[in-house]
Amino acid sequence: MRAIVQGVTAQTAPIVLDTIRQRRTIDLLKLKPDPVPQDVLEAILTAATWAPTHGKHQPWRFTVFTGEGRRQLADLFARAYAASSAKDAGSPDAQENQRMRVMRAPVWISLELHVPQPPRFPQWEEEHALAAAAQNMLLAATAFGLASKWVSGVAMISPLTAHELGAPELRGFIFLGYAAEQPKDSTRTPLEEKVVWVRD
């Protein structure tokens, strides 16, 4: 059994590590309008549910907006922006920009935090579980050849938006789509600048 597990690990580890490295944050303006298949979305959401979660609380909920359903989110973002403290909140142009943003991505997924009541663990543990679920989604999207971004503008974390979705709290949205061009390569700081080893 141990040999089989090691063999599977040897085969899959490079794929997983390459997917992690290939993930990129993609701007809305660099997405194609092509829809994302339902089965792909369900696989991405299922990946989210396998995030680590203390006590198996699974404090995440997701609302998915696709197709014409995005217009509801577009109107909601416009209203939430108008109700915000942004300097241009009262500007019709700024509100319309919120609507236009939504329609530029084929898929929007809310990141809703639902902490069990009464709370059993510190709030930060539930926050981290939701963040882990979001990362799982981003990686799964990458594995399916999708571009993605986690966004948290004022309309996307607004109490008004959260209320309309029936969410106690929002931690933003993830949008998905197919990239119109190949994302650029990126770099990270070398390990020796970020890691301390403590050995025998």
Automatic annotation (TrEMBL):
InterPro entries: NAD(P)H_nitroreductase, Nitroreductase, Nitroreductase-like, YdjA-like
GO molecular function, one term: oxidoreductase activity
SUPFAM superfamilies referenced in this protein's UniProt entry, alphabetically: FMN-dependent nitroreductase-like
Cofactor(s) demanded: FMN
Annotated cofactor note: Binds 1 FMN per subunit.
Keyword terms: Flavoprotein, FMN, NAD, NADP, Oxidoreductase
Pfam family, one: Nitroreductase
Enzyme Commission code: 1.-.-.-
Residues given in the record as FMN binding sites: R23, R24, T25, H54, W150, V151, S152
EC category name: oxidoreductase
Location of the Nitroreductase domain: 20-178
Family per record: Belongs to the nitroreductase family.
Name the record gives this protein: Putative NAD(P)H nitroreductase
Taxon lineage: Bacteria, Thermotogati, Deinococcota, Deinococci, Deinococcales
